[in-house]
């Protein structure tokens, strides 16, 4: 396995291993080296961490403890909020922060709320950085990471991002990508997130013209948009484990090309949902596996579903137009996926997986928790939001946009990716 990967990397002439990082980027992110061979260093406090993340020096930044941004920018007390129609639960439901930059609240009834300001916008990470947690100690609390406007070559590995005003819509997003290239997100956990664990804007990265390899992730106890895919993007989604999701897993929208194989869905109410403008999806079943095998020239893996509804999607144009450039992937048979994900996925699991690029992660650092929020189809109404946000850990999301045609300037980046039904990728 490793030989296959190293051979592929060597052929491409890319650096095999970045300092301080476990494993090597693969899939569409092959060649991502982050801070490269910069000497790994440990910031002393949040101001130094912010400085190192945002400056123009290639860096390998070790996160060896909790960096707590709560209160670092103060609180907004009795500030403007609104009560969206998704909240039919009164004070136990999720209201929305009415940000000045957003007209999202529209004519919803207004109310006031108090929230932590630091979480509202993530740290603006610059290019050529490796951000790597040490053991299971790496936590960034109260602020997310924001990679936008041409940022490229960033590795985010083995950290936990948590507590972004989880009781409020627009309270903060954990990782934002918009207009980025070559991003490898590995063994990252997110919890207690106010809006989206992962969001892409409309520039190439997660929104338009993206190529994403999405593998080894454990998505459990979510209520919807896990994930939502949209725009002119390619998603190779393999060997992930969904468990006990009370709403939908995939929400596939316009322009998406999704190849879904070798995944396990257990107790997933709605594994697959299409937008009114659906994209193209090929989800491998035992009856169309041979089609996939012959079109891709390799063995495709069948998805397995138990106590779940079905995925019925077999648009072969996904296979015939599959883009090149996804190196070093190896798709496991679904029968091996659950145990692999459960034993390897999550923060603090790098050592168990560094011998194989396919190692999976698992969130072991807390009890399984009920779904948050009254928002979204299939959501559990009136769950108590505080302290009970869903968790989503993942092994790998890698991104390489295709070239964008030149033309008029793009519309401004949305302040936070998503309102209900409109985000390129959100979880609820
Ligand atoms: C990142 O590193 C590459 C390769 O060394 C370099 O060409 C590029 O200018 C760097 N980007 C920034 C923003 O420093
Ligand atoms: C599945 O999720 C439901 C709703 O959140 C919860 O009541 C139940 O205990 C969960 N089951 C397991 C095995 O996690």
- Low-confidence sequence ranges: 1-15, 353-381, 383-428
Number of domains: 1
Number of helical regions: 6
Average of pLDDT:
79
- Give the CATH level 1 class: Mainly Beta
Shape: globular
Class computed from helices, strands and strand pairing: mainly beta
- Distance between the ends: 36 Å
* CATH architecture type: 3 Solenoid
Write down the CATH topology.
Pectate Lyase C-like
Radius of gyration: 20 Å
Number of strands: 25
Hey, roughly how much beta strand do the residues contain? 25-35%
CATH superfamily, called what?
Single-stranded right-handed beta-helix, Pectin lyase-like
Instruction: Let me know the largest β-sheet.
Output: 17 strands, mixed
Write up what this structure looks like.
The chain is mainly beta. It has a single domain (3-363), classed as Pectate Lyase C-like (3 Solenoid), CATH 2.160.20. The chain has helices at residues 2-12, 46-54, 289-296, 317-320, 337-344, 350-353, and strands spanning 59-63, 66-68, 75-82, 95-97, 110-116, 123-124, 129-133, 139-141, 145-148, 152-157, 160-164, 168-169, 175-178, 181-193, 198-200, 210-215, 218-220, 228-229, 233-238, 241-252, 256-261, 264-274, 280-283, 304-306, 391-399. It has a 17-stranded mixed β-sheet that branches. A four-stranded mixed β-sheet has the order 5-3-4-12, with no helix packed on it. A four-stranded parallel β-sheet has the order 6-9-13-15, covered by helices on one side. The protein is globular. The model is unreliable at 1-15, 353-381 and 383-428 (pLDDT under 50). The structure holds 2-acetamido-2-deoxy-beta-D-glucopyranose (NAG) (2 copies).
